[in-house]
Amino acid sequence: MKQVRPLTIVNGRLVLPDRVEQGAIRLVDGMIEAVGDIAPRDGDETVDARGKLIAPGLVDCGVFAVDKPAFHFGGITRAALMPDQSPVLDIASRINFIAKSGKPDLWVHPLAAATQNLEGRELAEIALMRDAGARAIATGRQWIADSGVMLRLLQYAAMLDMAVITHAEDASLVGGAVATAGEMATRLGLPSAPAEAEALAIARDIALGEMAGARLHFRQVTTAAGIELVARAKARGLKVTAGVSPAYFMLSDLAIADFRSFARLSPPLRSEKDRQAVIAGIAEGTIDLVTSSHDPRGAEDKRLPFADAAPGMAGAETLLSTTLTLVRDEVIDMARAFSLMAAEPARLLGLDAGKLEVGLAADIAIVDPDKPWIVEGKSMAASAGNTPFDGQPAQGRVVALYKGGVRIGE
Amino acid sequence: MTSEGPSPHGWRYPAGSLAFPHRDLLAIGKLERHEILYLLDEAEQWVDLNRRAAKQSEALSGLTIINAFFENSTRTLLSFEIAGKRLGADVVNMHAAQSSVKKGETLIDTAVTLNAMRADAIVIRHGSSGAVELIASKVDCPVLNAGDGTHEHPTQALLDALALRHALDGRGESADDFTGLTVTICGDILHSRVARSNLLCLQALGASVRLCAPPSLMPQGIAEMGAEVFHDFDAALAGCDVVMMLRLQSERMSGQFIPSAAEYHHLYGLTKERLDRAAPDALVMHPGPMNRGVEIDSEVADMLDRSIITRQVEMGVAIRMACLDVLTRSARGVEGWEAAR
C-alpha cells in the first residue's frame, strides 16, 4: 500500500542522529519531507505523538526468519535475512523472491550466501545476487574455515563494494561445543570451547580483510578479546564494523544453569567479564550496531537436552526494550540507541533509511521508552516464544509503526 | 530391619521427609551435606541385608521401577536391577537399542510414554548432559539419575563415599565424614561425570580433592569448583590418603587427546612404585570397568589391603536400595513422608 495523503506527526520528541528534540515530522509519498520545528499543512493527516519519541523504524541486520508479527511488535521495519534458509540463499532467483516477500509493510533485505550452500568451499554467484537485491554477503551461521576461500571472497566482495558479514568463531576450536569453557560449562558437563575461539577468527579475518581491502562486519562480537581486536583495527582505519545481540550484554553464561535451552545461543553466552566488555564496547563505539538475531524455534528444536537443542532465540520483540536498558543505565544516550538499532545497520546495508532525515524512507516508530511490560514466551507475537528473557519485566514499547508513511496494523 | 523402622542414625536428621525433601535424585550438586549423609546412613541397613543369605525385603512390594537406559551399561544397570528386586519391586529394563528412541521419537515423548505406564520410579541413563533433568520435569514419579552425559552420576559418588566410609571404619578410623582426608582423582576428568559427582560429594563431606589429568582432559574452570589441579601425577599423589583412578575410554587414546595408551600409562598409570608416593596406607578406588595396564596396574588393582574396588561394587547395590527406598516413601505413604511431594 502506498501513502496516499501527506502525514504529519506532531508533538513528539524527535530522535535525531545526534540529539533528541521536541518537534514534528512530515511524511509525503513514503519519504520524510520535513523534520523539526514544523507544522502540518492544509490537507495533511495529523497524528499527535503525545510527547512520545518519534524515532526511525528499526533496521535489524541479521535475522534467521521472516517473522512479520514479531518484527512489527518490536518496531522493526526492515530486516536483513541471513542466507541460512531452506533452501540456502545462494542463487539470484531466491534473493529476488525474498527481497519482495515482506512488502509493503516490511522490507526484507536478503543477504547473499558467501559460498555455495554455505559450505565454505566454492564462491556463490554474488554479483548476480547483488543485482537481484542482495545488500551484503554473509557467511551464515559458520565461519569460513579455509583461509584461501575467505581471502578470495573478501577480494571479490571488495571489487563489488559489498560488506561481508562474518560469524566469528574458529570452527576447529569450537568443534561440537555448546557453551563457553569455564566453571558453568564444567559444572553442567557441557561440551565447551574457549572464548578465545572468537578472537582467533576475528584476528584472521581482519588480516585477510586488510589484504583484500574489503568491508568486514562481525555479526556478533561477544568477548573482551574480540572487541579489543576490532577496536585496534578501527584505530588503524580499516573498514571493520561490529554488531552484537542484546543477549550478550544482558546475560552471562549463568543463564544456562539448569540446562535452559532457551539460553543456548550461537555464539554461546560468555562470562560476566565478557558481558561487561560488550557494554564497554558499545559505550566506546567499538560495537556499531545491535541485532535481534531473531531465530524463533519451536518445541521440537528446543525441548531437548541442552546440547541437542538448536541454538538461537526469538529476539525481535525484545531488541528495543533491552537496548533501552543501556540508556537507562547511562551507557549510551537515546540518539545513540537508535543509531545502534537503525542508522548503523542501514548504513552497513546501504539503505536510504534508518534516520530522521529529509529524503529518507518514512519508516517511523513512535516509542514510549518507559512503558513497562512483561516478556512472556507463551504469548509472544513471534512464531515461537524461545526467549531467555521469559517472565522478565521490560520497559519500552512501540506505540505506532509506519512503513513508507503508512501506519502498520490499520 | 525394614525401611519403615527407625533409622540407626535417625537422631542426626530432621523428622520424616525433611531429612530428604527431594522428589528426584538428579545431581550431587543439588544436595546438602546432611542429605548426602542421610542416604549413606540409610544404606547401612541394606549393606547388612545384602550380606545375609536371604537378601529379600518387601519394602517396595507392588511397585514398578523402570530402568530406562539410553546409553549402554552393564554394571550400573545390573546394580539398579538387583537393588530394586531385593526391595521386592517389579523391575523392568528398557534399553535404548530396543526402544522407539531409535525410530526418532523425541526424548519428551519417551518420557510422557514412560509416565503413562505409571511407574513408581524411573532410573535413567542418557548420553546428553541435562537429559535426565529434562525427563524428570515431564514425569510424575521420582527419577534417579544413573548418569547423564558428562554432567553427573550421583549414585556412583554416593557408593564411593559409602565404600570409603566402610574401609576407614574397618581400620578403626571411623568418623562422621571425610574431614582432613585428601583424595586424588586421576584420569579423563573432562569427560567424566563420575569425577564431577565425586568432587562435589567428597567436598561436601569435608575432604580436599586433587584432580590430575593431562591438560587436554582437564576441563577449564574446574579449579573454581574448589579442586586442586595437577598435571604431574607424582605431585598429585604425594601424601594423599585415597587414589581414585578413572577409566580412560579407548577412543580418547588414539591421538586426539593423548598420543597412545602406552604414553598415558607412562605418565598417569597407577603403578606400585607410584602408589608409594601416597600416604603409607593409601586406599585405591576405581569406578570400573578397569583398563588394566593403562590407568591402573593389576598389581595395584588387586592389592587386598589397599584396593577397595570390589567393595565399591558391593556398596553400589546398597546405596541404590537406599535411594529407591527413600524416594518412594512418599508414594508408599510411609509415616512422616506423606506430604513430601
Automatic annotation (TrEMBL), chain A:
Keyword Membrane annotated: no
Ranges for domain Dihydroorotase catalytic: 73-222
One GO process term, biological-process aspect: pyrimidine nucleotide biosynthetic process
Record keywords, A-Z: Hydrolase, Pyrimidine biosynthesis
InterPro entries the record matches: DHOase, DHOase/Allantoinase_Hydrolase, DHOase_cat, Metal-dep_hydrolase_composite, Metal_Hydrolase
Leader peptide range in chain numbering: none
Name recorded for this polypeptide: Amidohydrolase family protein
Organism annotation: Parapontixanthobacter aurantiacus
UniProtKB/TrEMBL annotation, chain B:
Domain of life: Bacteria
Record-annotated Aspartate/ornithine carbamoyltransferase carbamoyl-P binding domain positions: 23-165
PROSITE patterns the record matches: CARBAMOYLTRANSFERASE (PS00097)
Pathway: Pyrimidine metabolism; UMP biosynthesis via de novo pathway; (S)-dihydroorotate from bicarbonate: step 2/3
SUPFAM superfamilies membership: Aspartate/ornithine carbamoyltransferase
Catalytic activity from the UniProt record: carbamoyl phosphate + L-aspartate = N-carbamoyl-L-aspartate + phosphate + H(+)
GO molecular function: amino acid binding; aspartate carbamoyltransferase activity
GO biological process: 'de novo' pyrimidine nucleobase biosynthetic process; 'de novo' UMP biosynthetic process; amino acid metabolic process
EC main group: transferase
InterPro entries: Asp/Orn_carbamoyltranf_P-bd (IPR006132), Asp/Orn_carbamoylTrfase (IPR006130), Asp/Orn_carbamoylTrfase_sf (IPR036901), Asp_carbamoyltransf (IPR002082), Asp_carbamoyltransf_Asp/Orn-bd (IPR006131)
Chain sites annotated for binding L-aspartate: K103, R193, R247
GO CC terms of this entry: cytosol
Annotated coiled-coil segments of the chain: none
Record EC number: 2.1.3.2
Annotated carbamoyl phosphate binding sites: R75, T76, R125, H153, Q156, G288, P289
Keywords tagged on the record: Pyrimidine biosynthesis, Transferase
Domain Aspartate/ornithine carbamoyltransferase Asp/Orn-binding: 180-326
Pfam families with a match to the protein in the record: OTCace, OTCace_N
Similarity field: Belongs to the aspartate/ornithine carbamoyltransferase superfamily. ATCase family.
Protein role: Reversibly catalyzes the transfer of the carbamoyl group from carbamoyl phosphate (CP) to the N(epsilon) atom of ornithine (ORN) to produce L-citrulline.
Assembly, per entry: Heterododecamer (2C3:3R2) of six catalytic PyrB chains organized as two trimers (C3), and six regulatory PyrI chains organized as three dimers (R2).
Protein name (Swiss-Prot/TrEMBL): Aspartate carbamoyltransferase
Source organism phylogeny: Bacteria, Pseudomonadati, Pseudomonadota, Alphaproteobacteria, Sphingomonadales
